[in-house]
Amino acid sequence: MSIACTGIGVSGRRRIAVGRAHLLLRGQVEVIPMEVPKAELDNETDRFRRALATAQQQLRQIRDQIPANTPSGIAAFIDTHLLMLEDTAIADATVELIRELGVCAEWALQVRRDELARVFDEMEDPYLRTRKDDIDHVVKQIQKVLLDQHHDSAGDETLSLEGQVILAQDLTPADTILMRHQGIAGFVTEFGSPMSHTAILARSLGIPAVVGVRHATQYLRHGETLVVDGEHGVVLADVGPAALAHFERRIRQQEAITAELSKLVDRPSESVDRQKVALLANIELAEDIAATRDSGAEGVGLYRTEFLYMNRQQVPDEEEHLRAYREVAQGLPGVPITIRTLDLGADKQLDGGCPDSNPPACNPALGLRAIRLCLKEPKLFRPQLRAILRLSATAPLRIMLPMLSHVREVGEVLTLIEETKAELRAEGIPFHEQIPVGGMIEVPAAALAAAAFARQLDFLSIGTNDLIQYTLAIDRIDDEVNYLFDPLHPAVLRLIQMTIEAADDQGVPVSMCGEMAGDPRFTRLLLGMGLREFSMQPGSLLEVKRIIRASDLRKLQRQVTALMRKIDSEDVGLLVDQLNHEAA
Description:
The protein is α/β, with parallel strands linked by helices. The protein is built from 23 helices and 16 strands. α14 (378-391) crosses α15 (407-426) and α20 (520-528) packs across α22. The longest helix has 25 residues, at 41-65. It is globular.
């Protein structure tokens, strides 16, 4: 009898894989608190630093094994872990704990890991929260060296993994990259989220994968044939011949579709009735630049900047901001880039970010975050504004403000921008005088007042991730309630429609940069609602373009108008499926 396990599908272009399971077992790192005599503390800190150097060397060796034809951005995931190994938040802080607590290096490192994990656990932004996985990967790498457990098969070049499905508790980005080049068919992990680096790599590299499959290594056996459905988040074992033949046909179909999609890179994003739809990319790190170019994106609709503030003691200065933004602009010359200003909060601060006199927020999601924090703490905001304005003299930039809820916030930010411009003029530093300033509509109050925001701003962008969470009062990362996360809830659709209509009435461009924009299931619905600018992960762009090029937007608008009248009385999901079927 077949066994079905469910998790979270994180695949990109390739969604189905069939192969024999390769169980990758790694012993858990067991760390025991041990006191170290005061006279031995210097030796213990030396032992920690040697382990740190060994872990760095191991990662560099893995990086050197990556084939030369791999896109440069992919290797940057390993560079991220190398940077974390060099970060004082781990290295120096652990040495201090060894001396302060008088304990062994393994335990001091575990204490530091737990401190950092608490910070990430309190973060409201789901993407940033999953960065805890990277801390765990790096800490485990060092601990294995300290405990002499650092020999495993993931980086073994002699191991044949061709056509196999990796089954593991978790995989690091380094594992994922190496095993992709060893020819794995897909992978299944017990842990992970859609926004972990491993999941992002699976999409970038086109590896069918399902993460978050609880107890997968207990229920599934080494050597048995697995079907990995990365689209629906399902793993099947002990499948009969007829079912296997069905999935193998689907694999051939997806390969044909992928080949066809690649032909669309240089084709215009234009509907059957000759209406233009802009397709932009969401990016965060340097590794996203190559994927953005390869996808044929017309620009960057969302450049997240929070990475500059994470895992550090001091806030980034103006020059650091400028270097990071310039790297993106140089990698995408002449491409419009929308930089979202700092979207952190009091619940997710670096140690030097905010006055420590502030009491911890009872509900960080509703507290001092994003634009609220920037206005209260201009010392965080001004260096970023100055860097953006300086680069605007040579690159086509836009400024986007997150989590607006009151129009008066727009006025305060515009005043701050004008003051910053005056400073630059006085210093003789050039900048673009009319740099566009827009705002994100991700709070229900902002959607309801979208017309007022449109009158004050140059553009709007709908952030569906937060808009859905705030509208439905649920956390999509919380396993207990994330089944309620529903982009098709009538209230969510009405808020999106109100925002699009308000922007159109005011003659202001409106885009969508949340995950809904990159989900092909919703493309026709959003087109019918009047959306003409989408921003998404680069890996989703060509599929969305295919749908646009096959759609008649005038017809879709009539169909969606009728659909919106029915959403209270019928299952919206069925209506959307019908819309997609009729338009296909």
